[in-house]
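Table 4 source record.
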Amino acid sequence: MQLHFIFSDYLLTWNLLYGPSFSESVHKFKQKLYLTYRRQYEQLQKDKEEMLTDIKNFIPDDDTLYNLVLETKLFLQLKEGVEKYRLELLKIWDQYKKKLRDSLKEILKFPLKEEYQIVVLHPVMNSCLTISKGNMIGWGKQINPKKQVQTIVEIMETITRMEMGKVNQNYQEIVDVVLELAFQNELYTRLSGKSNYQEGDSTLTYLKKQIYPYWLMYLGYDKEEFPGYMMRDGITFEMDSYVFDAEMKKKNLMEFIEFCVHNQKRIVHINTLEII
């Protein structure tokens, strides 16, 4: 798998117009354009899906607003910042790509596409643009200098969610917990060399503790190894309360989600887990 970090004037412009306003001056700029070119502004909304399908061959039906934005000082400043940010993302990708590829095979157990295009936006925009089942995302989020690995983990989680589509929408909490275990916890831990299992959405903590024993089975650990991982991750459970299932490791991530959905009562019924 390879990530290509690319740039597009059009997607940067689109996100400037339709993304959250990151300053008062940007808000006023967008408001002025909307009041002056309302029809063109509203018609641009549909362009995102076309751009994220084939950015290289995208040609707008009406380039009036695109041309106006491209000529502004604001756009030139954003474009300069995007290039610096793109180089930072490339550096992070180069640092972790080998370990990431190996880790994803063991965690997901289903193949992703061979290549993905990451259309780089400015991090001040705090944006993530996707379409279902595509191989391209728009990405512009701040990099934590002390946790650079978080950026590549979040990109890979976004790609995986995109690949999985709208799976088990009626059980979104279970889907979110499993993906948190897979990316924010396990993948982050493997890439950084330090357990990250105490991090995540606090509203999902209880459910995550319930699923955790089955997660260890899914990862293929033997029962004798469980105490070591419980200590590493700061999550304990009564091992005798669980029937070890050696077949769990044969499932892929989507099959594991299905298992959790179909066995909710069995999983959530056990309430003897503790956070250290």
